[in-house]
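Dear Dr. H.,

I hope your travels went smoothly. While you were away I took the liberty of generating a structure for the chain from your last submission, since the lab meeting agenda had it listed for discussion. I wanted you to have the full record in hand beforehand rather than looking at slides cold. The sequence, exactly as received, is reproduced here:
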Amino acid sequence: MNHGILKEVDQIDNFDFFRQFESLSEMLLLKNWYRSMLILDELIPICIDEEYSIFKRPHLKKINHHIYREFKHAKRVSFYAKQLALALSCSICDIYTIEQSGFVHDFGKLIIDHRILYKEDTLSHNEWQIIKKHPQFGAELLSLSKHYRHLIPAVAQHHEWWNGSGYPNGLRGEEILFNARVLSVVDAYDAMTCNRSYQKRIESDAAVAEIKRCAGSQFDPEIVSVFTDKVIKKQDCSIFKNVQLIGC
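The corresponding predicted structure, in token form, is as follows:
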């Protein structure tokens, strides 16, 4: 079998994806947010449909390490969000909306300087204030979208806490959009179980224990119950087992 031909076909199939990825990198560097969002409008459905393995391609890392890291996180969160929405018996329309929200939830981080975002040392007060604005940055970026403006509320609220001590607006309980409460749980789980510049990953059991500990304070306790009892225990979530641990 000529594996070289198969490799060429694979490269041709993904050519448009890589070209758009390069264009997005250029527009973000130029701080052309309107053009960046036009490209993201095209990339979002492609990224949601693609297998996770495409986001591990070294070529993407060479193009733009910032986007490379954020898109991998986005893909994992969108997957967990979809699984949680299914377990919560959401409608088909809501499941897809939550999956989309999972992919775009941290788009605001694409605007933040990578030297702040991936800083290994302790952030200064001003740097932390910038990081905390990423939900608002994401909402502003999505306001330029032709197709995904309906995701703005979930993106803007995904760091609000059940007890009202989150950001940016200190919303509490059911004041927080349901979709944002879903994202809050799965985003935290992925952040804990993947290596970050500022912390090493922890095992899934430890992450689940921490999420349970924060149920009723940071997270909606009912959503936590469904996530820990029905989603994490499902074999489906092992899809990332071999690719998640190194270079998340």
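Two observations you may find useful: The domain at 65-244 is CATH 1.10.3210.10 (Hypothetical protein af1432). The longest helix spans residues 65-87.

With kind regards,
E. W.
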